[in-house]
Amino acid sequence: MIRVGIVGGSGYTGGELLRVLLAHPEVEVTQATSESNIGKFYYQVHPHLRGKTQLRFIGRDALEACDVLFLALPHGEAQKHIGRYTALGSKIIDLSADFRLHDANQYKTVYGHDHAAPEWLGKFVYGLPELFRENLRGADYASGVGCNATASTLALWALVKAGVVTANQPIIVDAKVGSSEAGREPTDSSHHPARVGIVRPFALTGHRHEYEVKQSLAQCGEFDVRLAITSVELVRGVSAAVHLTLPAGLADKDFWGPYRQTWSGQPFVRIVHEKTGMHRHPEPRLLSGTNYADVGWEYDPATGRTVLLCAIDNLGKGAAGTAIQCMNLMCGIEETTALTFGGIYP
Question: Global pTM?
Fold first, then answer.
């Protein structure tokens, strides 16, 4: 059994990590920290875990060595003590934004301060398996991926990889998100809107997750991605709609070909593009609690106006689910283990 610990287990992503890991057949959760809940049972903070474990939260000073250590801390915290955490965990998966960007200068531009451990940036693999699976196999360190960046990148990737979407135009991403994206205790509504209708508009500095998307797409060129976020009447979920213009006169097969070529064999990406019925396009409500990403498109052949779509659960595929998918790859476990829950309908 792989011994797993979680630093920062009381937040929404910590609770989602615990929910999945406690049912993982090859994992033993040995410890989880919460400075404000020391001594409390996990289920006293995460009531959906009642009856699943009798473990209690500990403080960070009580952490012991383990095989995999998940860091589910507020942004900016993991980098301050990364040396200590890497000494405790043989493998580290950080769910915050601390190690997502590879360039220290860009990190300062995006987050407004110097990185506390810039020498570690190049050691973390960007934790999006659909693009960087082979880099993650056997890796020791993986970064989390922004939930909005995940949805935006997966919406774009099939046509970017096929050369259908090129770097000669602005790419506008309109993301509708659930309130849980702001976390249990929202601290930065400008980047993670917590209340319905709050918008992070297109700005000169851009949304933080734009830079992750650009970094991922850079292997195919320099793309001008612009991201806006609006919180809607939803608790969990991200629905990304990528607006752009493609040549007029394309046929549906011109989309099906790249989508099938890119996503065939990817266990957690599903193509949703139906001509009839109620559920013709990706819907985040159908993905609650899952590690799946549903992708699709809408295209007007007369004008070339195109919308590329992706829906995910921001706490699942957008955070804890992908982190556990990374753990499986890093530890040589079957990638889909403990992550095949298909959601609930209606």
Answer: 0.94
